[in-house]
Structure formats: C-alpha cells, structure tokens
Design brief:
heterodimer; A: 778 residues; alpha+beta; Aldehyde Oxidoreductase, domain 3; Aldehyde Oxidoreductase, domain 4; 3 domains; seven-stranded mixed sheet; B: 284 residues; Uridine Diphospho-n-acetylenolpyruvylglucosamine Reductase, domain 2; Uridine Diphospho-n-acetylenolpyruvylglucosamine Reductase, domain 3; Enolase-like, domain 1; five-stranded antiparallel sheet; four-stranded antiparallel sheet; 14 strands; 32% helix; globular; binds flavin-adenine dinucleotide
Chain lengths: 778, 284
C-alpha cells in the first residue's frame, strides 16, 4: 500500500522537538571526557607501518605498560564461519610486530592528560622497519609481504556466488557494459572522538566503564571476555555520545587497556583520543575497488551482472563485524533495486599495513551504489536512452521480491519514488539550461541514483554472513510507575539520533499519554536489558518495534484493569489524554490512578492481575528495505576541476515517518557525508605506509559552506515487514549521494568523453581526466 | 595535541618586547601575535618555542593610519579590520575583497595582517597582496628599525628576511591612484582553506592601454612574488581575452610549482593559468 504522507492522528507522524536537545544545545550534555580521573592515559603509537619491535623504553620515573604487562589479556579475534574466512588476532597493545602507523604500543599513565602527553613523547621506541603494503592490489600480488602469516596472499575472506543460469545468460547477452570504480579511504569523523573512563568501585568491587560507544552491552561482553572476568564485574555506560557513524560500533583496543588498568590499579583511569589519533588510528572505511559488468538485452534490461570486489581491510579485523563485512555486504547487495536474475560475484577482503577498517554509515553500499549507478548511466548512454528510462525498465516493481542473492524486498516504491524525484527536478527545464550554458562554456550536469537500503534486519540476516557474534533482536522493558510515569528501558543505544524522542511518540500513542510522560533509558548495562545498539539503520525499526510490543502488553493490562474498575467491557475502554474512559459514557479514570491501583490497591480488582505495570518484549524482524532517489545538479569548472553543487534533491520512502523532522535530519546529515565521500574526504598513505592526512588541514570534510540546500520529498509505503511500519533511514543519505553526484559530474563532462569513476572526484582528478582526454584527441 | 612546555612573556611596550626577544630568540623564542598559525603548529608540536613574547598588549602596535601616501598597518591590526574599506579608493576595496578569502570569521577576528607576513605561508593572501603592491616591511629590534622591500622580504616556505630577534612592527602599502583597477582570484578546495593558487593584479588604463601592470602569484610556489613575464605581456597592451590568456600562460610557464600528496605540478600550473586570467578579468 503506497501513499503520499499520512496526516498524523496521534503523536506518531509529528515533528516533535527532540527531548535530547535542550541539554545538548546548552552545553550540559554529559560526555565520557567530562569525568574526573586519577590517572590519564596517553598511548604511544607506532611511527612505522610494519616492523619488529625491538625496544620500548619509558623515560625515567614514568609509569608505562606494554604488551608484556597485558600478557593475560586475550587477543581480539573476530570470527566468521563462512566464506573462507581466516581469523587473525590483534593484541590490545602490539606485542612483537607493528602493522600500521598509529597502532598502540604502550600506555603511559600520569595524573593529567597533559603530563601523560609530555611523557609519552619521551618514550624511546625502536622498531626494525620492514616493507609495508598499502594498496589492496599490491597486497594480493605474488611475493607481497604478509601482514599476518596465516592469511596467505593477505586474503582474509574470499567469497563467491553465482546463480546457476549465470554462465548461459552472460554468454547469450547481446550488450555488455563494463566499468571499474574505486572509492578511496574515508574516516567517519565523529565530532566527539573516542573516549573511555574506567573506575574501580571499591564497594561493589567492580569496574564502571564509561565509554563513547554504539554498543554498550557488547562492549561489556567482549571486554570482560578479553580481560578474563565475569560480565557482572563490569558495568558499561554510554553517556551522551557525540556521533559514531559506525566508528564507535567496533571494539577499540584502547578501551580494553583502560578497563584493565582501572581493574589492576584499583583506581580511575581515563583516555580521550585527540583528533590526530582519531584520523590515523581510529577505524577507516570505504577503500574498495569494484570491477562490474552488466549484460543487457536489446530492450536495455539487465539480464546478468558480474562483479569483482576487492576491499582493503587494513591491518586487523574489527570486532564484532570482522574483516569480511565490507566485501560480503557488497556481494549480497550489489544488484541494488534492479530486477536481475543472474548474478556472479567474487568478493575478497585484503589485509594491508594500514589502519583497520570498520563499518561506516552505509558500509559497502555507498560504493556499490556508485558502481551500479555508474553502470546504469553508461548503459543508458550506450542504448541512447535517458537515465530515468533505463532505471524504469529495470527497477523492481512487484513485491515481495526475492533477489538473485536471496534477499527479500518488502513492499516499497522504487519506480514511484524515482518518478517523484525526476518530476521535482524538472529534467526538461534543466536540459534547456544546460544547453544554453554550454554555449557559454559553462558545464552543468544532472545525475541521479536510485537504490534500496536493507534496514532493521534481525538475526537471520547476520547469521547468513556466518558471524560468530550474531546481532539482530532488541528488547524493551516498559513500565508505568505508581505515579503514572512511563519508563522504557532499551537495549539499543542511540548516539545523537533522537531515538528517545521517537520512541516516546510510539509509546505515548499506545498508552494514551503525552510523550513528556515517557522517559527512555539507554546506554547503561545496569539499567537496561541486553541489546545490541545502534548500527545498520536498525534502532527505530527494531527497538521501536519492541517498544510497541511492550507498550501493547502494558496497554492491554491497563485496559483490563480499567474495565475491571469501571465495570465495563475491555472493548469499550479507550485510552487517551492520560485517561481511560468507557466509550460513549462519562465514566473515566486517570491512567495515573490506574497505575496507583496497580501497585498500591491491588485488592480493588475483582479479576486477577499481577501487581505492577511492567512488561518486556523482544523484536527480531526480517528486515525492511527503504528506498530513495537522489538527484544532484552540479556545475563543473573545467579549468580548475572544481565541482559546485547547485542543488540536491532526495525523494525517500522510509515507510511511516515517526518524527518527520528527525528523518529529515538523518537524510541531511547522511547526504553531507555522501558529498564528503564523493568530492572531498580522502585518507592518504604514502607508499611506505605513512599517513599523510593526520590533521584536519589535510583531511578535508566539507563545511556548511560546501553543503547545498537539500530538498526532500517523502512517500510512505506501509510495510508488513516492520511492526511500526517505519523503515530505517539512518544510512540512506550517505548511500545515494556519491552516485548521484558523480553521475552529475559525468553528465556535465559528457562533451569531453571522460568517465570519472573514482571518488573522491577531486578537482585534480577531474583535471587529470580532462587533460588525458584532450591529449588522446590531439 | 597540546603544546610542549614554554615560558610566556607579556611586555607592555615595544622596547620591552624587543629586549625580551633579543634575550630569548637564540633559544627559539618567538613573537605571539594572533596565534592563529603559531598555536596550531605548537599543538601539533611541529613548533616548540621555549619562549613566547606576546605582543597583543602593546597598544602602539594597533595603529592603522595613512602617512605619506601609505597605509601603515601595525602589528596588532587584525584581519577583520579590513572587512570594510579602511581607506577610500582602490586599496581599501582591494583589501576588503581579499580579506574575505582568509580563513573563517573567528580566525579573522584574532589573526593579524603582520602575523601573516611574518609567518609567510606560501598561500597567504596578504603576502601575495604585499608582493603585488611592492609594500614595505618595518622590522624592529634592539638594534633599531629597518625597512625591507617586499621583493626582498619573502625567501621561501615560511622563510623571510626577518631576523630572529626582530619584531615586524608595521607593513606599509602605497595608496593606489583612484583609477587603478585591481583584481583577485584564488582557488581552494573549500571556502576558507589556504589556496592552491591565487593571483593579485592591478594596473591603470591610460588611453585604453595597461600601464604599470602588476601580477603577483601566491600559493603556487614557495613564496608569493610578482611575475615579470606576465606583467610584460600586459604592459602597453589594451586589455583583451587574448592578452589576458597570454599573460596567464606566461605566468604558468614561469612558476616552479610546489607539489604535495594532493597536488601535482601540472595541475598547479593549470590553476595558475585560471587564477591569473580570472583575476585580470575581475580587474576590468
Ligand atoms: C583554520 C585556519 C585557516 C586559515 N586559513 C588561512 C587562509 O586562507 N589564508 C591565510 O593567509 N591565513 C590563513 N590562516 C592563518 C591566519 O591567517 C593567521 O592568523 C596568520 O597566518 C598568522 O597571523 P597571527 O597573527 O595569527 O600570527 P601568529 O600565529 O601569532 O604567528 C605566526 C608566526 O609569525 C610570527 N609573528 C607573528 N607576528 C609577528 C610579528 N609582528 N613580528 C615577528 N614575528 C611575528 C610568530 O612568531 C609565528 O612564528 C588560517 C588559520 C587557520 C587556523
């Protein structure tokens, strides 16, 4: 069932101001680094990309720990049980060899952060440097040095799929379009860098670890496991978290060291990463090559698709998603929203002497969307049809749809959403403007991307990857206290998305109270049920679904109790405005009073009700695909290579919009990061593995002045695959923007016969391409 | 990401400042002006001066005045002072046009004109402007004051004719004749970034021909400078697309481009062509 956007009848669908914001905008947010500590840690990091550690000598009087002190702490060893995965180990402090510039070697302790930094600088490190491998293709070349001895050819994962009909379909195809794309390396760049603060609690005799994380429960599990302690001996708190984008989903080795230090020294120990550390040694993302070939029939329909994916994994595998996450997601989702029955893919993850990779907003999908959307535009050009037409011929129209890799697309609006975007962009008017501008030597371009995004997926989806740690479900414990206040304790852990606000809207509607009555508690392993956290565009879908389930249970109980006390049939009880009333009468009772009775006056009920008003629910959904179409209008300055973005437009179908303002914010921020990926940000290593983008003077995130106005259009397809009918929308902006922008750049440059297939498409890369094309013509 | 330890001095007079500087300069003592270049490199520990001589408390250095047909800019005059024309005529307009390209407004509120000249970043807009205008730089030390011509001042990447015990007390720019045409163009990746190439140009039109044309290129080489070959292509010619293109091509041929991880020489030359031509077009 598709529609425009529904008019809200309750709290859901309203752009409520975020509950989270008053504290944050007034500077009274609470962050890990705000906590006082007895000792501060500064990590001494490897200055070389590869080598054998000979000596690490602390300056006289300094307190330092190295791998030798941490011998009892287990290595991080993420595991996958499929796709020829080779497990590799990472010691939390490098033991014998170093594998990337920035790898932590030792921890210096001092009473202040400043003193620790001064001391760390005086640590004497001797490393016998060996040759480093930086590029993914170089890493798989014969004779390349091995990053880990057990991963032969530096390959950590080697996955293949092919549909039975692929070979025949491919051989029979009459038209082939092939391209190679490359996405350079990015850093997720959260505003708050990573931080951990661990304190020994002498009364409870355990560690309280505050840290900037997206997954507090899993952090407790893995850190306790590595240190070799009971989980009950560790409480993890994620206070306000200033952005994560995936970078704070993966386990930071540094957090383990901080927790271990507090436990060993029976004191409080803190570490806050600085920006340089974040840029060189926090997780990177995106570094991928894709070779893609599309086989088309005479009607420009894609009949078969072949892909080869090479993902640079860096020096270690990230926990919990492993070093396979990028390659496997690329393999599973490469065909995108298109109806192609035959598919073959090889996908490899490759180790190099570079900072480890971890999921970053969109994971592989910004790159694969870039690949397949470039393919569609190239095919359209070959067939002499326009970009919307080739997509219209290939987009999936009938749902549910099972893809060549076995994913099931739930109800969506691929064609309708694209048509809405194309209409809003006014293609004919743009083409006229473009033609006029070309006559004046100005090069305007329009580009689009259509994609669907798997969101809110539960256990089976992760299990399909063979992950040893298989996330999926979420639990919500929802209670009304005797004063009538509602509290939802959630296992998921937002870090800036406004989830508290959105969940309170869902719960308020169900219980007939206002959202101010609802408190959402998260990010504390003592106060919340076990859960996974925020990643993979899942929290609103899964924690929201669980909240709805729990609220329905509480609602049923409230109705039962109200019916009992008001002497009416349960079907006649209506909850709303904080009151339970018998419909069509003036008999009513405040929900507060019902709550009071549920705890303090249970004798008043004729029926039997368990005392209290608290319920728990767990939701583990199949997954739901949101979809969108992005359109970018750009102007390329052919003399300097600069790309100016005139306008950016997004038509999105994320199912039911719980809080449209928050959805818009997610798309705006995502598009900004997509623009970064397409045009600006690039982590650069030199051939020896030294990192050249260690400051924000070299690594260039776009600023407010580079981000154009973004026009948004919504559709709401109400899917059966999500309890709240909401689809995930956390990553879509990032996924679609690079493809649309680069297609627009190529449209602008069409008269020159160049094809820009590498991102970021920096001005220099564009000039290099134009110059090469001019030389070829001459 | 915090500076290595240093000693801080806050003199109240120029005399006091140069006296302290004379003492501490041999131990890498440095002047602290707006701190917008020095403090970041200290935080990265790329610079670790053992002493800082903060000149911000010296009132006499906040002077901004016209004297003998020259605009005199004291060492404590901030970038932001130029956001509105400080003198009537083309010079005030040129300064106001250029200042918008320097960093972002909080940095402009603190950073100083003279600090930019002393720091001599290859891509400093003020350095290119001082080169284009043949400005004068006044350097003061316990040994007295001396005046250095712009053409003799810039010596390389962040290298100048300033001695380590000298305070750059003032920069003097000639007021431009009312009919002077000025143009500026720069190319950078993001608004407010240091430019990859820039051009500052000015000339007068006498009977339709360019008189005393000046073309200074910044950002492309170790330090900004006037490019005689480009100026010669303009002199005594009437402005035209062909003449401008010729001057731009000569400028590009003349430069020895800096290269870095994100910028190759060929690309920088192409940028020099673009910025020179566009600055000339803007001047018309
Ligand atoms: C994010 C960012 C972006 C920037 N972008 C630009 C830009 O686009 N263009 C640009 O030109 N600049 C840019 N800057 C630099 C800024 O303009 C600085 O203000 C300027 O370069 C130095 O001036 P200052 O007064 O801040 O000097 P300081 O930082 O205090 O000093 C810089 C150096 O000059 C020396 N010095 C300063 N004043 C004197 C003096 N009077 N006598 C002797 N020595 C002196 C100091 O000892 C030091 O070595 C940027 C800075 C930042 C942080």
């Amino acid at each position: 069932m598709s529609a425009g956007v529904a008019v809200p009848t309750g709290w859901v669908g309203r752009s409520l101001r975020r509950i989270e914001d008053p504290a944050l905008v007034r500077g009274s947010g609470r962050f890990t680094s705000d906590l006082p500590a007895a000792l501060w840690v500064r990590f001494v990091r490897s200055p070389v990309a590869a080598g054998k550690i000979l000596r690490i000598v602390a300056p006289p009087g300094a307190r330092m720990v190295t791998a030798a002190d941490l011998a009892a702490v287990g290595p991080i060893r993420p595991m996958l049980h499929k796709f020829n995965y080779v497990p590799i180990e990472q010691r939390v402090l490098a033991a014998d060899v170093v594998r990337f510039v920035g790898e932590p070697l030792a921890a210096i302790l001092a009473p202040s952060r400043e003193e620790a930094e001064d001391l760390a600088e005086r640590v004497h490190v001797e490393i016998d440097a060996t040759s480093a491998i930086v590029d993914a293709y170089a890493a798989i070349a014969a004779g390349a040095p091995l990053v880990h001895a057990q991963a032969r050819g530096n390959i950590i994962v080697d996955a293949r799929v092919a549909t039975p009909g692929f070979a025949a379909a491919s051989a029979a195809a009459r038209h082939r379009v092939r391209l190679r794309i490359r996405s350079r390396r990015q850093n997720a760049l959260p505003l708050e860098p990573r931080a951990a603060h661990a304190a020994w609690d002498p009364v409870e005799r355990r560690i309280i670890l505050h840290c900037s994380t997206q997954m507090p429960h899993l952090m407790r599990t893995i850190i306790a496991q590595l240190i070799g302690m009971a989980e009950s001996g560790l409480r993890v708190i994620a206070p306000d978290v200033g952005g994560g984008f995936g970078q704070k989903m993966s386990l930071a080795a540094e957090y383990v060291v901080v927790a271990w230090l507090a436990r060993s020294l029976r004191t409080s120990v803190a570490w806050t990463e600085d920006r340089r550390e974040n840029l060189i040694a926090s997780f990177h993302a995106r570094d991928q090559h894709i070779d893609l070939e599309g086989m088309f029939d005479d009607a420009a329909r894609l009949v078969a698709l072949r892909a080869d994916v090479l993902a640079n994994v860096g020096a270690y595998a990230c926990y919990p998603t492993t070093g396979a996450v990028e390659a496997l997601m690329a393999m599973a989702e490469m065909p995108g929203p298109y109806d192609v029955r035959d598919y073959s893919c090889t996908a490899r993850g490759v180790l190099t002497h570079t900072c480890p990779m971890a999921p970053y907003r969109g994971v592989s999908r910004p790159v694969i969307t870039f690949a397949i959307e470039r393919l569609m535009d190239k095919a359209a050009a070959a067939f002499g049809i326009d970009a919307p037409t080739i997509r219209r011929r290939n987009l999936v129209r009938a749902f549910p749809y099972t893809t060549a890799t076995g994913l099931v697309f739930d109800e969506a609006s691929y064609v309708e959403t694209m048509d809405a975007a194309v209409l809003a962009a006014d293609l004919p008017a743009f083409r006229a403007r473009q033609a006029a501008a070309r006559l004046q030597g100005r090069y305007l371009g329009i580009g689009m991307s259509t994609f669907c995004e798997r969101t809110g997926y539960g256990t089976p989806a992760f299990a399909a990857r063979g992950m040893d740690v298989t996330p999926g479900w979420e639990t919500v414990v929802l209670g009304i206290d005797p004063s009538g206040c509602v509290e939802a304790r959630i296992g998921s852990s937002p870090h800036g998305q406004g989830l508290r606000t959105a969940l309170s809207q869902i719960i308020a509607d169900e219980l007939g109270v206002s959202p101010e009555r609802v408190t959402v508690v998260h990010g504390d392993t003592d106060r919340t049920p076990y859960g996974w956290g925020t990643f993979a565009s899942r929290s609103l879908v899964i924690a929201g679904g669980a909240a709805l389930m729990a609220a329905r249970k509480v609602r049923a109980k409230l109705i039962g109790m109200a019916a009992d006390l008001l002497e009416a049939a349960p079907e006649d009880i209506v909850l709303g405005d904080g009151v339970a009333r018998v419909s069509g009468t003036d008999r009513a009772m405040a929900i507060d009073a019902l709550a009071r009775a549920a705890y303090h006056q249970t004798h008043r009920f004729k029926g039997t009700f368990a005392p209290g008003l608290a319920e728990s629910a767990t939701y583990d959904p199949p997954g739901t695909f949101s979809n969108a179409c992005h359109i970018a209008l750009v102007e390329v300055d052919i003399e300097t290579g600069r790309v100016g973005i005139e306008k950016f437009l997004v038509a999105e179908d994320a199912g039911r919009l719980i809080n449209p303002m928050i959805v818009d914010g997610q798309i705006h921020g995502g598009v900004a990061q997509g623009i970064a990926n397409a045009l600006y940000e690039e982590v650069i290593y030199d051939a020896g593995g030294d990192i050249l983008t260690a400051t924000l003077a070299d690594y260039l995130p776009p600023t407010a002045r580079e981000i154009p106005p973004i026009a948004l259009h919504h559709r709401e397809t109400l899917t059966e695959a999500s309890l709240t009918k909401a689809k995930g929308v956390g990553e879509g902006g990032t996924i679609g923007a690079p493809a649309a922008l680069i297609n627009a750049v190529n449209d602008a440059l069409a008269p020159f016969g160049v094809s820009i297939d590498e991102i970021p498409a920096t001005p220099q890369r564009i000039r290099d391409a134009l110059r090469a094309a001019a030389a070829a013509k001459a | 990401m915090k500076p290595a330890p240093f000693q801080y001095h806050a003199p109240r007079s120029l005399q006091e400042a140069v006296a302290i500087l004379a003492q501490v300069a041999p131990a890498d003592g440095r002047v602290l002006a707006g701190g917008q270049s020095l403090v970041p490199i200290m935080a990265f520990r790329l610079a670790r001066p053992s002493h800082l001589v903060d000149i911000n408390g010296i009132e006499a250095l906040a002077r901004l005045a016209v004297e003998n047909g020259k605009l005199c800019i004291g060492a404590c005059v901030r970038h932001a002072a130029f956001e509105r024309p400080v003198v009537e005529g083309p010079l005030g307009r040129l300064l106001a046009m250029v200042v918008r390209h320097i960093a972002h407004s909080p940095i402009r509120a603190r950073g100083t004109f003279c600090g930019s000249i002393a720091h001599a970043d290859p891509a400093s807009e003020w350095c290119a402007l001082v080169a284009a205008l043949d400005g004068e730089i006044v350097a003061t030390s316990v040994r007295g004051a001396r005046v250095i011509a712009a053409g003799q001042f810039f010596a390389g990447i962040m290298a100048t004719a300033l001695a380590e015990d000298e305070v750059l007390t003032e920069v003097r720019l000639p007021l431009l004749a009312p009919d002077t045409r000025c143009g500026f163009y720069e190319f950078n990746r993001r608004a407010g970034d240091f430019a990859l190439a820039m051009a500052v140009v000015h000339f007068r039109l006498v009977e339709g021909r360019m008189f005393k044309p000046r073309v200074a290129i910044g950002g492309a080489e170790t330090h900004p400078r006037r490019v005689a070959a480009a100026e010669a292509a303009l002199a005594a010619n009437a402005p035209s697309p062909r003449v401008f293109a010729d001057a731009a091509a000569r400028a590009a041929r003349d430069v020895e481009p800096l290269e870095d991880a994100q910028t190759n020489a060929q690309y920088r030359r192409e940028l020099v062509v673009a910025v020179t031509r566009r600055a000339l077009e803007a001047a018309l």
